[in-house]
Specification:
Blueprint: H1 5-25, H2 38-54, H3 62-94, H4 101-118, H5 122-145
Amino acid sequence: MMPTAARLVAAVVLAALAWFVSDLIRPLMPEGLYFGWFNYVNAGLGLICGWRVIGARAGRGMSDAIGNGLTGGVVLVFWAIFLQSLNEMLRLSMRHAYKGPVDGLQDMFRIGFDYARVLLDPGVATSLVVGSIVVGILAELSNRIWR
């Protein structure tokens, strides 16, 4: 896990992409929804996924860079949906919305699917795909420049 320029670039740029996409998602959600740490959590996940997924695989060529970027974007989306739906389930469980823990876990999947549907918005999906590819390419270029 040695720090490299590719890891740093991938982490910072994917975190910025996560923040940007989080801002795109806000108007698509129900009005009056409290977002709290939404952008910060997603940007933190972007840092981690950029460092561990995209940056770690840099140096294999441009075609692999595109795949690495897309893989990092998918991993970011998975963990973001997981954590945000877990947070919502815990919020609802504090209001005694569930009979037991299994009901809460089942509802977490429903919440996650609802959040995933929001990501199918053309602007959000395009930003995620193109941005992830750009992150992969930038990580590859930084690996070539600062070896």
